[in-house]
Specification:
The complex is a heterodimer of chains A (about 325) and B (about 325). In chain A, α6 crosses α7 (about 190-230) and α9 (about 245-280) runs parallel beside α10. Chain A is globular, with a radius of gyration of 25 Å. Chain A contains 11 helices and no strands. Helix content of chain A is about 75%, strand content about 0%. Chain A has helices spanning about 1-30, 45-55, 60-85, 105-140, 145-160, 160-175, 190-230, 230-240, 245-280, 285-295, 300-330. Chain B has helices at about 1-5, 15-20, 35-45, 50-70, 100-135, 140-155, 155-175, 180-195, 195-210, 215-220, 225-235, 240-260, 275-280, 290-315. At the A-B interface, α1, α5, α6, α9 and α10 of A face α6, α7, α12, α13 and α14 of B.
Chain lengths: ~325, ~325
């Protein structure tokens, strides 16, 4: 297992490098010019100098190498500096956003808590709802509960977040006026009242995201439970006189959770990507919204870094899912 | 076509009386031999959700493509006197802030959305089946092609789609004109980023098929690789491809709407369902119904296609069929 993990970790490095190269080359084709906003009265020579100051004059391999160095060598040092109070990065160049002229990673660090609050809560809530639904739907297959569950998850698959989000805004904030339609990120939680306020503004985005995640996870849970309920060991457990609760909730559930846990792990990065739309609908200024504004403003270093972070998350969680599968299921041995 | 039907193996699981009419008695043959597709249709008919989904999808497609023949109002013609109207006989879905008829706009938007969905699905299906069949059939290409698939699966798709829209919009607009250019761009972008699941499923099935006796038999009479793929492999992997096709349409319609909703899809004066929904969110407080119709259309189409795919999967699975 350990050698497998190490081998996969080593394999992940060229994969990530290749992905970063693909993203870099794709952005290289971008028609946008970061100097487009500069007033026309600025003479062309000065504009050329400004371009070179942004590092645009250099050939492509040099710029790719510089990005690699900045992202993989200097940014971790900045992190160490911030944690331990050292100053390794004194005077070194970091990945700079063209939009704000400040380091990209600083902005990312500012935005991540909002995304984690909303998306993370939605993921936890959805998983907690989905697993009991999946268990009961499989246990009473084709009952009205199962049929209703199937229908609700079909709706969860089919209704896109930009519609369900707008719909809950119309219902709960325009018609009923229960919740605010815009997520206020400057809100500080320091008392019971402000905590309740935070909950109120989180309910709608969490609801929209949770519907989608519940739909997927409960389907997987149901399918996995159904696979296990017909196994011989279940009959054995019943035959030796175990109670129904022990059979289903201990024997079957434990075995059914194996694929579901990996599916949950695989879903984490997809949620970061999928939350772009939900963040846009509820005006949560998280990491997805940052990507959209960066794309609209032609801020290539920001887009490059964010896209790469998303890709890295996918690769890492794929790895985690594979390793988890091996740990949880003793029948699977990779080496 | 009957020739191909006979080549499709019946998996040996259909009741013997149907597969071999001769077994019922040499003299009394009251039923003609049944093809695979008759069995599939029989099973499909019993799946209520799939039938309903199929009918609804058909109605939506017919409405958006043939509706303009009967409902002749121009979707882009503003009529300021009639702006912001509610539902009425003259305008069943009301009018928008410029007095354009929402029903006509919905049909025009649906035409684009459904066309994008089907075109992108066909592209993804073609790429996916090609990669899947080649990877499954030629052992040497299997590993590199599957690594490529894994690589594509590791890419963050929505951000990449957004980046692609940003990059290639202007050059394509210059060559093909605004609407054509964006159409080609969206179809290609969605197709290129959604072929991977199909490729994986098809590869798995091809690997299993390659070990079957009928392939060995065909090989022994000297069938070439090209003929082998078109005659024996492709007809037998048709069912996973068809299921992928329905899911592909749903996925493509949602992605196109999401791009339009984020302001990176079709231009503002060119209606699609996603664009109509996006424009309507500005008037959310005053006219919520304007958000409702396009959103409902997207959801209903995707829901019906998903049910269709569900039924198709059951009907095409010979282990479930006949139960």
């Amino acid at each position: 297992m350990l050698t497998f993990t190490i081998r996969r970790l080593v394999l992940a490095i060229p994969t990530l490098l290749f992905i970063s190269l693909v993203i870099f080359l794709l952005l290289e084709l971008a028609p946008g010019d970061p100097m487009a906003q500069v007033p026309l009265t600025v003479p062309p020579e000065v504009k050329q100098q400004m371009r070179e100051a942004l590092g645009l004059g250099e050939p492509i391999p040099v710029r790719y190498w510089k990005w690699i160095v900045q992202f993989f060598w200097i940014e971790p040092q900045v992190l160490i500096d911030n944690v331990f109070g050292t100053n390794l990065t004194e005077g070194k160049l970091r990945v700079i956003s063209w939009q704000t002229r400040s380091p990209v990673m600083d902005i990312v660090v500012q935005r991540i808590p909002q995304t984690l609050w909303v998306v993370g809560t939605a993921y936890v809530v959805a998983t907690l709802i989905a697993i009991p639904i999946g268990i009961y739907s499989a246990y009473r297959q084709y009952s009205w509960f199962d049929q209703a569950g199937t229908f609700v998850s079909m709706i969860g698959f089919s209704v896109p977040p930009f519609f369900s989000g707008v719909l809950v805004i119309v219902i709960f904030s325009v018609q009923l006026g229960w919740f605010p339609s815009i997520y206020d990120t400057t809100h500080v939680v320091n008392s019971w009242e402000s905590f309740v306020e935070q909950l109120r503004q989180m309910i709608m985005p969490v609801m929209v995201l949770a519907l989608q995640i519940t739909a997927q996870t409960s389907r997987f849970m149901r399918a996995s439970m159904l696979d296990n309920l017909n196994q011989d060991y279940v009959r054995t457990a019943r035959a030796k006189g175990l109670g129904e609760y022990a059979v289903v909730m201990v024997h079957v559930l434990r075995n059914s959770m194996i694929p579901v846990v990996t599916v949950i792990a695989l879903g984490v990065p997809a949620i970061f990507g999928g939350a772009i739309i939900t963040e846009q609908v509820f005006k949560v200024n998280g990491i997805g919204q940052l990507l959209i504004t960066a794309i609209q403003a032609n801020d290539l270093p920001m887009v490059q870094t964010l896209t790469f972070i998303f890709a890295a998350l996918i690769v890492i969680f794929n790895l985690i899912a594979d390793v988890l599968y091996g740990i949880l299921d003793p029948r699977i041995r990779y080496d | 076509m009957t020739d191909r039907d006979r080549l499709v193996p019946d998996e040996g699981l259909t009741p013997a009386s149907e597969a071999l009419p001769g077994a019922a008695g040499p003299l009394k043959i009251d039923k003609p031999p049944r093809g695979q597709w008759a069995d599939v249709w029989d099973q499909f008919k019993h799946h209520k959700g799939a039938m309903a989904g199929g009918i609804i999808f058909l109605v939506i497609v017919l409405t958006v493509f043939l509706g303009p023949l009967f409902w002749t109002l121009d979707p882009t013609l503003p009529n300021i006197r009639d702006r912001n109207q509610g539902m009425s006989l003259a305008h069943p879905f009301g009018t928008d802030q410029l007095g354009r008829d929402m029903f006509a706009r919905m049909m025009a938007g649906g035409r684009t959305s459904v066309a994008v969905g089907i075109a992108a699905m066909l592209l993804a299906l073609f790429l996916g089946s090609f990669v899947g069949v080649v990877a499954g059939f030629f052992k040497k290409l299997d590993s590199p092609l599957m690594r490529l698939t894994d690589l594509f699966l590791a890419l963050p798709l929505l951000p990449l789609l957004l980046v692609m829209m940003l990059l290639f919009r202007e050059p394509l607009n210059a060559t093909f004109g605004t609407e054509q250019g964006i159409f080609i761009l969206i179809v290609c972008a969605i197709g290129v980023t959604s072929w991977m699941p199909t490729a994986r499923i098809v590869r798995g099935d091809v690997l299993a098929l390659k070990e079957r006796e009928f392939v060995l038999a065909a090989r022994s009479i000297g069938t070439t690789n090209a003929k082998m793929i078109t005659r024996h492999i492709l007809p037998n992997v048709l069912s996973p491809i068809m299921v992928s096709a329905t899911l592909g349409i749903a996925n493509a319609i949602i992605t196109e709407s999401a791009l339009s909703f984020l302001g990176l899809g079709f231009p503002p004066d060119f209606p699609t369902w996603g664009r109509l929904l996006f424009d309507a969110t500005d008037y959310l407080q005053q006219y919520p119904s304007r958000v409702f119709w396009p959103g409902m259309a997207i959801s209903l189409t995707v829901l019906s296609v998903n049910y269709l795919g569900d039924g198709l999967r059951d009907a095409l699975d010979p282990r479930i069929r006949g139960r």
